[in-house]
Recover the amino acids of this structure.
C-alpha cells in the first residue's frame, strides 16, 4: 500500500521541480556567456594550430557575437510564436551540437561558420529563458529572486571563462574550450525536461526579410572595420556600402526588427549607447589582453586566465551592491561612476601596454575596469526599463541586449584592428580607444 501524501507534499514537489528548471535555465545562459569569454585565452594556441591571422581570430569571436546580437530581437518573436520552452530547448541542443563541430573544425573558415551558427543558437536561448522564468515564477517577489539567481549563475561565466579556458587549453589545446559545452548542454536539457509551466505559442508576426537584412548589415559593417584595420581600403569601402544598403532595407520594412517606438522615450538612446560602449570596452579588452600577455610577458593560457581575475571577479561579487545602490539612488549615479571607473581602468591598461609596466599596475587597472562594468550593466538595465513607456518596455529591454552584443562585436573588430601595427603599441592604442568610448558614453548619458 502506498503511503498517504501529506497536504504540503505536492507543493514541495512543484517548488523543487521549478527550482531545478531555474537551475537548468541559468546554466543555459551560463553556457552561452562562457563561450564569449572562454575563447579569449585560447587565441594564441588557435593561431598556431590553424595558422590564423589577426583577422581570422577576430572573426572566430565576432562571427559568434554578430549572429547573437543581430538575432536576439527576432528570437524573442520566435519564442512568442512557437513557445519559449520549445525554442530554449532547441537552442540548447543546437548549441551543444555546434560546439562539437567547432571543436572539430579543420580550418579557420570552418570554425567561423560553426561559430556563426553557435551565435544563432545562443540567441534562441536568452529571450526564451527570461520568458520561462516569468512563467515559472508569476509572483513578483519570487520572480525577482529567480532573476537574481539567473543573473548570478550566468554572470559567473565571465569570471570562470578565462581561468577555465586557460586550464583547458594547457591540458588539451584550444578544441577543449568547445567540447566542454557538450556535457553542459546535456545537463541543461535534463534539468529543463520537466518544466512545469510551458509558455504557450502566439501568432506574432515575424519579418524574415527585415531580419536577414539586419544580419547582413551587421556582418558587413564588422567586415568593413576588420578590413580597414588591415588597410584593405577598397574591401572596407565595399563592405561599408553593403552594410548601409541593407540597414536601409531593414528600416524600410513594414515590420522592422529594431522597433522605432523603443527609441522615442527620453534617455533611451543615451542608455543604449552606454550599454554598447561598456561591451565594446569589455569584449575588446578580453580580445586584446591575452595576445598582449602572451607576446609581452610570455604567459601561457592558464597564466593569462589567472592574470585577468581582477577584471572578472567583480562581476560575481558586486551585483548585489549595485542593486542596493540603484534602489537607493536610482540608476544614474552608478552608471556614471561605473563609466568613470571603466574608462580609468582602460586608460591605465593602455599606459601599462605602452610602458610594459609591472603586473601590480596592470592588476589595479583591471580591477578598476571590472568594478566599473559591474556597476554599469545592472544599472543601465534599470535606466532603460524606467525610461521606456510601459507598452514598449519589453522591446526596449530586448533592444538593449541586442545593442550590447553589437557593441561587443564592434569592440573586437575595432580594437583588434590596431594589432596589425604591432601587439604592444597596437594594444595601447586599442585600450585608449576603449577609454574614449567610455568618456563619450558618460558625457551623453550625463547630459540626457
Amino acid at each position: 500500500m502506498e503511503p498517504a501524501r501529506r497536504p504540503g507534499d505536492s507543493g514541495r514537489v512543484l517548488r523543487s521541480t521549478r527550482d531545478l528548471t531555474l537551475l537548468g535555465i541559468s546554466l543555459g545562459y551560463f553556457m552561452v556567456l562562457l563561450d564569449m569569454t572562454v575563447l579569449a585565452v585560447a587565441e594564441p594556441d588557435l593561431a598556431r594550430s590553424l595558422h590564423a591571422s589577426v583577422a581570422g581570430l577576430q572573426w572566430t569571436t565576432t562571427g559568434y557575437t554578430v549572429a547573437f546580437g543581430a538575432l536576439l530581437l527576432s528570437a524573442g518573436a520566435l519564442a512568442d510564436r512557437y513557445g519559449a520552452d520549445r525554442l530554449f530547448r532547441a537552442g540548447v541542443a543546437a548549441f551543444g551540437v555546434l560546439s562539437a563541430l567547432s571543436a572539430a573544425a579543420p580550418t579557420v573558415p570552418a570554425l567561423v561558420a560553426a561559430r556563426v551558427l553557435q551565435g544563432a543558437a545562443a540567441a534562441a536561448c536568452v529571450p526564451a529563458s527570461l520568458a520561462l522564468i516569468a512563467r515559472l515564477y508569476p509572483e513578483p517577489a519570487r520572480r525577482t529572486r529567480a532573476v537574481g539567481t539567473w543573473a548570478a549563475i550566468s554572470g559567473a561565466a565571465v569570471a570562470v571563462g578565462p581561468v577555465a579556458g586557460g586550464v583547458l587549453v594547457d591540458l588539451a589545446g584550444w578544441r577543449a574550450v568547445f567540447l566542454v559545452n557538450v556535457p553542459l548542454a546535456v545537463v541543461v536539457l535534463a534539468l529543463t525536461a520537466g518544466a512545469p509551466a510551458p509558455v504557450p505559442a502566439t501568432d506574432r508576426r515575424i519579418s524574415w526579410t527585415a531580419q536577414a537584412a539586419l544580419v547582413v548589415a551587421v556582418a558587413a559593417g564588422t567586415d568593413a572595420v576588420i578590413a580597414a584595420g588591415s588597410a584593405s581600403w577598397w574591401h572596407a569601402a565595399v563592405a561599408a556600402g553593403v552594410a548601409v544598403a541593407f540597414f536601409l532595407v531593414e528600416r524600410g520594412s513594414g515590420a522592422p526588427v529594431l522597433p522605432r517606438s523603443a527609441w522615442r522615450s527620453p534617455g533611451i538612446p543615451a542608455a543604449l549607447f552606454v550599454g554598447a560602449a561598456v561591451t565594446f570596452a569589455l569584449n575588446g579588452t578580453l580580445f586584446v589582453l591575452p595576445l598582449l600577455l602572451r607576446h609581452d610577458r610570455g604567459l601561457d593560457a592558464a597564466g593569462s586566465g589567472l592574470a585577468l581575475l581582477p577584471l572578472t571577479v567583480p562581476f560575481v561579487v558586486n551585483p548585489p551592491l549595485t542593486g542596493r545602490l540603484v534602489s537607493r539612488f536610482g540608476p544614474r549615479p552608478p552608471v556614471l561612476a561605473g563609466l568613470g571607473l571603466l574608462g580609468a581602468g582602460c586608460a591605465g591598461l593602455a599606459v601599462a601596454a605602452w610602458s610594459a609596466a609591472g603586473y601590480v599596475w596592470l592588476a589595479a587597472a583591471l580591477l578598476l575596469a571590472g568594478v566599473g562594468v559591474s556597476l554599469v550593466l545592472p544599472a543601465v538595465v534599470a535606466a532603460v526599463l524606467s525610461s521606456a513607456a510601459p507598452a514598449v518596455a519589453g522591446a526596449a529591454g530586448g533592444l538593449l541586449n541586442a545593442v550590447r552584443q553589437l557593441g561587443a562585436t564592434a569592440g573586437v573588430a575595432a580594437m583588434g584592428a590596431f594589432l596589425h601595427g604591432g601587439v604592444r603599441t597596437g594594444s595601447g592604442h586599442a585600450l585608449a580607444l576603449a577609454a574614449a568610448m567610455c568618456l563619450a558614453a558618460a558625457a551623453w548619458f550625463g547630459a540626457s
